[in-house]
Design goal:
The protein has 369 residues and is an alpha/beta fold. It is 26% helix and 27% strand. Strand 10 and strand 11 form a beta hairpin.
Length: 369
């Protein structure tokens, strides 16, 4: 075990006095297992509500090359690979509002890595309007003519069924993940939280703390003999391409056409092109065949102005912590009075649901204590 190195702590003068006082006066201890986006936002929320918190993980630095999906994610706010329900819609909207609050604080992009950008998506055959849409002011349905116009005079190279498609646009947060994860670690440090490198093999109940929160993602999968031995947990392998930024690419696009799909996300450091969703695949090596297929799909499905000058600068493969059925956010009270809360299985929606789920953890802990 050892304490993880920190970047310089940032001053958070705008933090409320009540939060600062609660953090100093807490007599409740919490252990959060997992240091990806879910674990870090949960740690931060608990600190803000007066807990003395230690976040533990084997890869506590969040190195994207050591199995932490958050460190290499595309960073687009959009519910993906999670259940489409009222509660995930609520968590997603709560998270979006938190990103907007971060932007309103006046810090620069280089401090937090968050930007608000335009997004448009087209699916043929169409899906249902997502549950988060009614509470999203910028959400707007697009007509077929509006979609075709975005491809220029040549139009799209794939067929869109005029009677069976769904297209829409909205403004959404996109985060440069390395900067944002560093921002969270700095906030945790500023509130007196601790990040500790530690592998947790046994049941979470063996840890010492008034509140024990399981944010270990795939660390709960049966294959890993993890914390919960959860047979519903499985990886969904994702491979993406990093391309050099281009000044005219400022919006994110996702296209689903039949059984093919492609997306593009201007993340800040690079433009992310993708991708894949391979269930129960544990291989994190880069497949050149997949690289070629991603490029083919992107050139076929995305407007030409976004693919005619792709300059590949890197690749990344990660394992999304997907849970069949639903994201697991639930708590229980142990016989000794301590509380355990599970917060895992967010699939491809970690950056989309993180703050909403962290707030849910705080509510559950408060109700069960």
């Amino acid at each position: 075990e050892d304490e993880a190195p920190y970047r310089r702590p940032m001053p958070f003068q705008k933090l409320s006095r009540s939060v600062q006082a609660a953090s100093r006066q807490s007599n409740k201890t919490a252990i959060v297992v997992g240091a990806g986006i879910i674990g870090l936002t949960t740690t931060l929320r608990l600190l803000e509500h007066g807990y003395d918190v230690t976040c533990v993980a084997e890869n506590v630095d969040g190195d994207p090359n050591k199995g932490v999906a958050s460190g290499g994610a595309g960073g687009l706010w959009f519910p993906y690979l999670c259940e489409s329900t009222e509660r995930t819609g609520r968590w997603a909207n709560e998270t979006s509002r938190e990103y907007e609050d971060i932007l309103a604080k006046g810090l620069g992009f280089e401090e937090h890595g968050v930007a608000l950008k335009k997004v448009w998506q087209n699916y043929s055959p169409g899906n249902e309007i997502p549950p988060w849409a009614p509470d999203f002011p910028s959400f707007e349905l697009l007509t077929l003519a509006q979609v075709e116009e975005r491809y220029g005079p040549e139009g799209p190279e794939y067929d869109i069924d005029a009677k069976d498609f769904l297209a829409y646009q909205f403004e959404a947060p996109i985060v440069q993940v390395d900067i944002f994860l560093g921002y969270l670690r700095d906030r945790i440090a500023a509130l007196g939280g601790r990040l500790r490198r530690q592998r947790v093999d046994g049941p979470i109940e063996e840890l010492e703390g008034d509140l024990l929160v399981n944010c270990a993602g795939l660390g709960n999968a049966t294959r890993y003999e993890g914390l919960e031995q959860d047979g519903k947990m499985k990886p969904v392998r994702g491979q993406i391409i990093h391309c050099k930024n281009q000044a005219h690419i400022t919006e994110a696009v996702t296209i689903g056409a039949g059984d093919e799909g492609a997306y593009m996300i201007p993340r800040g450091d690079v433009i992310v092109y993708g991708g894949t969703s391979d269930e129960n695949e544990f291989d994190t090596g880069v497949s050149q065949d997949v690289v070629e297929d991603i490029i083919r799909r992107c050139k076929k499905l995305l407007p030409k102005k976004y693919t005619d000058r792709m300059e590949v600068v890197g690749h990344w493969v990660g394992l999304r912590p997907f849970r069949e059925g639903e994201v697991r956010v639930e708590g229980r009270r142990l016989d000794d009075g301590r509380v355990v809360v599970n917060n895992y299985g967010h699939g491809g929606s970690g950056f989309t649901l993180c703050y909403g789920c962290a707030d849910e953890v705080v509510r559950l802990a408060s109700n069960l204590k």
